[in-house]
Amino acid sequence: MKTPDMKKAEYGEAGYGDNSPIAALATPMSESALAIIRLCGNRGSEDKRDGSIELLAKIFSNPKKLLSAKGNSLIYGWIAEPQESSADKKINKKKNNKIDQVIVSVYRAPHSYTGEDAAEISCHGSIAVINAIMSALKRAGFREALPGEFTFRAFMNGKLDLTRAESVMELVSSKTGKGREQAIRRLSGLLEKEISYIKELLMNVLAGAEIFLDYSEDEFSGSHTDEEAGVLPGKDLAKEAMTRLKILSDLWQQERIYSEASLVVLAGRPNAGKSSLFNYILKEDRSIVTNTPGTTRDWIEALISIKDIPVKLSDTAGLRNPGYAPDEVEQIGIEKSHELLGIAVLILYVINGPDGITEEDRNFLEKFYLDGKKIITMWNKTDIAPFPEKNMQDELFQKWQPHGVSAKTGEGISALLDKIADSLLYSAVARQEGGTVAGWELSPAGTGSERGTGPGTVRQKDLIQIAFLAVEEALLLAESEEPLDIIAPFFRTAINALGEITGEVFTDDILELMFSRFCVGK
Fold this sequence. Notes:
By secondary structure, this protein is of the alpha/beta class.
């Protein structure tokens, strides 16, 4: 992360809080057919000379047409080098100072992404063209946008709440279709609506408690009783809020599994067929495959999608028995294999079918089962070595339940991928009772919601947990018939935490930290 001094050196005195006109490349800095440069910024004075559209007009071939353009319209023209004065114009009258032929998309406040006057320049995707246009924009009065500054302005101008703002970056970094869908649900406002509803429930509870406290016992009930001392107005609302917060908290693991790649490691003895399986699943030859044991001496990783779950699949060096003395290169590869196995979410252990289950296989499986690792055991090369009948009665064989596959014919691979996806889901998502709670339809296995969506970031998850624990503690105190003046602050804590999720409650340093993680141009 960049320090404040580093940012100052790169962007000068610019800060997220100012309204100066900004510009940034919104597409990759690489050769392409087209590139898009975004800019925005409202007029800063009454003479209307320093807004984003006005500044862009200084370097546009048809400034009058651009200045009079309505919102959501396209203007064709040229971007040219800015002229500093009328003298420059006379000197350069016959000089070709055009940079590129462009289309400008015009957006007028408040009907734009940031809520300000804005434009997007569609130019040719040449690095030289992009650099020249950015240079011209800076000379015209724009500064380079900070990371995430467009979305920051959208938040500050009320166009997005923080859950929607964070979902923008989730959408940009989504790795699978399911991850994209989950980000879209939050961008559509489903999480914000649920958080706001829970907050409203808790505000009603808090309001009832404060009204109760504002009146003396005699004024409120005429007389004091032990039963009234333990009363919590709106207890049912508080319980509903806690149930909804628990569902959101449980859904975090499901949301996370579709946004972050899970590490799945192929392991097994040398020549068990790990690399062949790796290549078959990837549908490309990434690992070298030979009949010589120990061919794979280093680990190879690839990012793939298995049933819409992003997976980082790793092919590792073959694991040798303790008495074997590998050369230095192979030893490093084996050590790295053990490191990866230690942090893997799921291990795919490959048994070489023709050899059967060896003592090395048994030792490995017993060790990692005892370590609590999630393992799928595969009996490879079923095309030449079907399951032997004698092993079917083996207690350990039944315990491990090897899945038959063939990297040569593809037999069992489709079922294996289903099994991997199920294992990742079941290991990540807490099991819950089936049913519908507050509009959330949960499957019996707790694998998701049909209508709702959970938190998409660690920040959101942590604040939901704070709110849940606060409400839980308040209800426990109410059951113990503690005074309302002790209980009420817990509801205030929960409400403030939920307000931080949507951005109703925020601090400048938290906002800067969050938006600085965005890419420039977003």
